[in-house]
């Protein structure tokens, strides 16, 4: 009596898919260089520009800390945003335009495994990217890294929740570009605007009030603020408009965007091109 072989579990297929996604990612050398180098380069530029009075970006920033120390949290947050939201929104749109998603949908692989593969790829790349950024910050710019378990615990949940939110929102936003060719033109300006208004490139408290209100709606501001609570001294929370790190609000807003991205993604995700039915 013959039996039909059982397919591997969705989780196992997802792990296999993650390996494929990572292999594909690291073969795209230009994307790899951009993802890993961008936060480091921007940290170096802004630390040098604003800290021109000191060596290696050591000029006095808010509260007397170095500008490199102040900008590091924002670069960590923007690195996560690039790896998750921007990278996925563009790459999925390109895969859809090339017909890759349509072909994958025709295989026995569950859709869940495909998305688990994307999540695994983003998580691994984000860990490597952040580790590289922290290493450069500590070794080149003499940035003090946290020493307490509570700080690293905060880092862990902000990192994981921020990565999950960026990933889910990136998948949802991938439905917006009409073609793979237009994906970068549609997605990149959104990320750039959020970087400028979310306290990544400038001291958030120095931005106009209306700009702060707009930034508070979106995840990047809260990711950057959460990371500031990790890498800046405790008294630095007085520099925030609310006078506190607002960890509760950070968790709620990132969680809300996670849910919104999931709902929108389920409703709008397309495996075929817009002109393919």
UniProtKB/TrEMBL annotation:
One example of a Gene Ontology biological process annotation: response to antibiotic
Keywords carried by this UniProt record: Antibiotic resistance, Cell membrane, Membrane, Transmembrane, Transmembrane helix, Transport
Segments forming domain ABC transmembrane type-2: 30-272
Manganese listed as a keyword: no
Superkingdom assignment: Bacteria
InterPro entries reported for this sequence: ABC-2_transporter, ABC2_TM, ABC2_TM_bact-type, ABC_2_transport
GO cellular component: ATP-binding cassette (ABC) transporter complex
Bilayer topology term: Multi-pass membrane protein
Protein name per the record: Transport permease protein
Annotated source species: Sanguibacter antarcticus
């Amino acid at each position: 009596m013959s039996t039909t072989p059982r397919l591997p579990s969705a989780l196992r297929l997802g792990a296999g898919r993650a390996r494929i996604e990572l292999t594909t990612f690291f073969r795209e050398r230009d994307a790899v260089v951009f993802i890993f180098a961008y936060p480091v380069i921007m940290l170096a530029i802004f630390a040098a520009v604003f800290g021109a009075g000191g060596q290696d970006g050591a000029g006095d920033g808010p509260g007397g800390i170095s500008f490199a120390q102040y900008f590091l949290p924002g670069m960590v947050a923007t690195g996560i945003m690039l790896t998750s939201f921007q990278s996925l929104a563009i790459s999925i749109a390109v895969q859809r335009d090339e017909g890759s998603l349509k072909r994958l949908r025709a295989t026995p692989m569950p859709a869940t495994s495909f998305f688990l593969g994307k999540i695994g790829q983003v998580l691994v790349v984000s860990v490597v990217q952040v580790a590289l950024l922290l290493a450069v910050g500590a070794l080149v710019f003499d940035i003090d890294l946290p020493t307490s378990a509570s700080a690293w615990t905060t880092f862990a949940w902000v990192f994981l929740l921020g990565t999950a939110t960026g990933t889910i929102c990136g998948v949802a936003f991938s439905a917006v570009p009409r073609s793979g060719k237009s994906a970068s033109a549609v997605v990149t300006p959104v990320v750039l605007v959020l970087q400028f208004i979310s306290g990544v490139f400038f001291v958030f408290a120095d931005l106009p009030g209306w700009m702060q209100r707009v930034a508070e709606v979106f995840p990047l501001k809260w990711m950057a603020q959460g990371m500031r609570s990790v890498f800046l001294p405790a008294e630095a929370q007085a520099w925030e408009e609310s006078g506190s790190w607002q960890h509760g609000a950070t968790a709620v807003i990132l969680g809300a965007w996670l849910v919104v991205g999931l709902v929108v993604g389920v409703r709008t995700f397309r495996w075929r091109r817009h002109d393919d039915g």
